[in-house]
C-alpha cells in the first residue's frame, strides 16, 4: 500500500491554533486541517512544511519542532502525518490554497470536522491546554 508523507503545522498565536478548511474537489474536501501538505521526492519534512505554508498561506515559519507522528489507513492509501509546532516569522496568513482559515483555542477544535487521522493530535493539544497530563 502506498504511504504518503505529510507535514502539518501546529501554528499557535495568542493561545489559538491556525486551522484551514480544505477546498472543494480535493481529498477530504470541506474538512478542517492543520495546514501543510505532501512531501515531495528528495524533500525533508521541514522543507516540505515550510514550502507548503508559503504556497497555501503566504507565510514563513520558524524552524518547526517535531510534535507527533500519526499513521492513518484510508481505503486506498496510508497517510503518515508529521505534526510540527511552529511560529510565524514573516507574513500574515491568507487562504490561497484553502477555502478559509480560522484561529481557534485548543478546546474549540472538536467543534470543527477534521479527518479521523487528526483526532489523536487534537486530543493531545486539548489535554495540554487543560493542564492534564497523559
Characterize the structure shown.
It is a single chain. The chain is α+β, with helices and mostly antiparallel strands and 134 residues long. It has a single domain (3-130), classed as Nucleoside Triphosphate Pyrophosphohydrolase (Alpha-Beta Complex), CATH 3.90.79.10. It is built from two helices and nine strands; from the N terminus they run ββββαβββββα. The chain has helices at residues 45-57, 119-130; strands spanning 3-13, 16-21, 32-33, 36-38, 60-61, 65-73, 78-86, 88-90, 100-105. The strands form two sheets. Strands 1, 2, 3, 4, 6, 7 and 9 form a seven-stranded mixed beta sheet that branches. A two-stranded antiparallel ribbon has the order 5-8. β1 (3-13) and β2 (16-21) form a beta hairpin. The chain is globular and about 40 Å long. The chain starts with a strand and ends with a helix. The model has no long low-confidence stretch (mean pLDDT 93).
- The CATH class designation is Alpha Beta
SSE run:
EEEEHEEEEEH
Mean pLDDT: 93
N→C terminal distance: 32 Å
- By DSSP (H or I, 4+ residues per run), the number of helices equals 2
Radius of gyration from the alpha-carbon trace, in angstroms: 14 Å
Main pleated sheet: 7 strands, mixed
Given the C-alpha coordinates, what overall shape results? globular
CATH architecture: Alpha-Beta Complex
Q: Number of folding domains?
A: 1
CATH-defined fold name: Nucleoside Triphosphate Pyrophosphohydrolase
CATH superfamily: Nucleoside Triphosphate Pyrophosphohydrolase
Amino acid at each position: 500500500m502506498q504511504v504518503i508523507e505529510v507535514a502539518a503545522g501546529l501554528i499557535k498565536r495568542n493561545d489559538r491554533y491556525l486551522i484551514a478548511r480544505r477546498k472543494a474537489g480535493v481529498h477530504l474536501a470541506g474538512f478542517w486541517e492543520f495546514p501543510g501538505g505532501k512531501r515531495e521526492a528528495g524533500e525533508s519534512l521541514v522543507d516540505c512544511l515550510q514550502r507548503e505554508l508559503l504556497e497555501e498561506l503566504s507565510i514563513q515559519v520558524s524552524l518547526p519542532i517535531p510534535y507527533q507522528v500519526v499513521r492513518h489507513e484510508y481505503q486506498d492509501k496510508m497517510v503518515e502525518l508529521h505534526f510540527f509546532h511552529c511560529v510565524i516569522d514573516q507574513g500574515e496568513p491568507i487562504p490561497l490554497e484553502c477555502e478559509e482559515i480560522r484561529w481557534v483555542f485548543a478546546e474549540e477544535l472538536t467543534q470543527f470536522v477534521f479527518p479521523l487521522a487528526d483526532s489523536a493530535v487534537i486530543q493531545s493539544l486539548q489535554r495540554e491546554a487543560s493542564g492534564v497530563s497523559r
